[in-house]
Amino acid sequence: MSETKYLETHEWYIVDGDNVTVGISDYAQGELGDIVFVTLPEVGQEFSKGDAIVEVEATKTVAEAYAPMNCVITEVNSALETEPELINNDPVGEGWMVKAEIKEMDDSGMSYQQYESFIS
Amino acid sequence: MSEIKTTSLYDFHISKNAKVIDFAGWSMPFSYDGTLKEHHYVRESAGYFDVSHMGRLRLNYSQIEEINYLICSDLKNISNTKALYSIFTSEEGTAIDDVIFWKFEDDLILICNASNTNKIKTHLDIHSINYEDLTSSTDLIAVQGKNAIDIISNIMSVPDKFSTSKEGKYVYARTGYTGEDGIEVMLDTNDTLAFISELENRGVKPCGLGSRDTLRLEASLPLYGFELTDDISPIEAGLKWTVTNKEDFLGKDVIDQQIESKEHKHLKRFKLNAKQIARTGTICTSDGVEGIVTSGNISPILGYPIGFVLFKSNPADDLVEFDIRGNLIEGNLLYKRFLS
């Protein structure tokens, strides 16, 4: 498994062979406040880099998580349907959103250090 | 723009790791432990809010006739121990501000929205009503929640609901903006930290404007700038119960005509059976009548999205279709309050 990378739109992703796991960063969940609803995609749905894949409703505002690369959804974290607060409590762990098969590798995300200086 | 204002508790809020936001020209705590947690503190136990940004003006009983002419409620004839929610109306019958009056034997306090303090002061000036602005010399702390009255009774004597009291350094009324019982206390800025520490020692948690908003929405209470504006009358906002002023008042003819004809905008409550929140500005239609959402959020207690919507006229049907970012989401109008 490769290192966790971050996007300027505040998603994180981890590449594992042909697959990628995607969620939103700790910074993003902190900015959103309490997350109350998560709308996940369907398994088999295809996304291009930059497409909105997940919609997150929080008490403060609504946000979308975008695809880090071209991919096809293979699994969604259905626990988020009933426990959206997992994203607040553990955004880069139990709060993961989707797993997907990579259609076109794009590993251009920032390292954690780069992301940290990006958000500070 | 003038400089951003802070209440006397600003450093205290920062020391409690509050997230602060700019609200109506004030830097105010948005949340401490998170909006949902704070919402539940109030529904299940008790929380306190720094609402010192709200305007506090001392008025004179000698001008009660003139004051009564500017609001849609009967302030003059209720007893001098009462708190009264009312609305300053314009000549067009629309809301200049919604406010609370605290009546005491010797004193009359007007509490207005922070965003409207200057507007209210100008309005009073135009009508030659004198006031003393207490906003910067005092704080206003709201103590709200299921257990708030039990807790507060250890600190001061508790008046009846919607009644006022003065005791030592505390000037207060049994009022609030959360749907729970509680009191709102005005006190000298030098006394506030000691009072808060008494609350905290009894388990009352600090709450920010985030939970104040979800609590008031869930309690079906309007917020000026959203459900009430310079363009919306008390009747249109569903606040006909506030129109108790039997004498002449500013905008009375328009308001009477709206009551009579029922031909006016209509504010309604709605719920969605969806995982989307219809937020402020969301367009909807019901039975061909167009509406716009004034406030929307999750109801933390009910677990589904709720809100207020303002229709151009009274829709005949209770089904509504909301356009949420291009998706049509169905909802229902509610004829009762969100929480029973």
Please describe what this structure looks like.
The complex is a heterodimer of chains A (120) and B (340). Chain A has helices at residues 26-32, 79-82, 85-89, 112-119, and strands at 5-6, 11-16, 19-24, 35-39, 46-47, 52-58, 62-66, 70-76, 98-104. Chain A is an alpha+beta fold and 120 residues long. Chain A has a 6-stranded antiparallel β-sheet. In chain A, strands 4-6-7 form a 3-stranded antiparallel β-sheet. The longest helix of chain A is centred in the C-terminal third of the chain and has 8 residues, at 112-119. Chain A is globular, with a radius of gyration of 13 Å. The model of chain A has no long low-confidence stretch (mean pLDDT 96). By secondary structure, chain B is of the alpha+beta class. Chain B is 19% helix and 32% strand. Chain B has 8 helices and 19 strands. Chain B has helices at 10-15, 35-44, 64-68, 117-126, 148-152, 192-201, 209-218, 252-261; strands spanning 19-23, 26-31, 47-50, 55-59, 83-89, 95-103, 108-112, 132-133, 138-144, 164-167, 170-173, 182-188, 205-207, 266-272, 283-286, 289-298, 305-311, 319-324, 327-334. In chain B, the strands form 4 sheets. Chain B has a 6-stranded mixed β-sheet with strand order 10-11-12-9-3-13, sandwiched between helices. Chain B has a 6-stranded antiparallel barrel with strand order 14-17-16-15-18-19. In chain B, strands 5-6-7-4-8 form a 5-stranded antiparallel β-sheet, covered by helices on one side. In chain B, α2 packs across α7. The longest helix of chain B is centred in the first third of the chain and has 10 residues, at 35-44. The interface between A and B is medium-sized, with 13 and 15 residues.
